[in-house]
Amino acid sequence: MQEPDLGMTKQEFLSFCLKTFGVQPDYPFDGDTETAVLRHGDNRKWFAILLRVSLRRFGFDSDNAADVVNLKLPAEMFGSFGKDDGVFPAYHMNKLHWVSVLLPGAPDSIVELLADASYETTRSRRRTRK
Q1: Of 17, 70, 96, 117, which residue has the fewest beta carbons closer than 10 angstroms?
Q2: Could you count the other beta carbons within 10 Å of the beta carbon of residue 90?
Q3: What PANTHER family would the database entry show (predicted)?
Q4: Are 69 and 101 within 8 A, CB to CB?
């Protein structure tokens, strides 16, 4: 498989999240300035985590590292996207709930759609009284 070269970069993704969700990244792992977490302000749940990962982990014939964003998706969205879209089973997360998206590597429209879905999936729910 050829290395990806289209779509938004890590910095463009962070800018999109700031503009769309009003969220800045935090870096919760001591000594690790590359792994960024994006969280909801109210419940502190992660909706995205950005990592550097070897492309070999995703089936590429390359030892180069790439930026990926892991996003949590609702069950009905699983299977809708695949390698051709730059979307893979999640690296280092529960593969039943999370996907890894290459940055760059997935079209902007797919990255934005999946980020919106992850944000909605992880947001606080209002409790209803019985």
Answers
A1: 96
A2: 20
A3: CYTOPLASMIC PROTEIN (PTHR35145:SF1), CYTOPLASMIC PROTEIN-RELATED (PTHR35145)
A4: yes
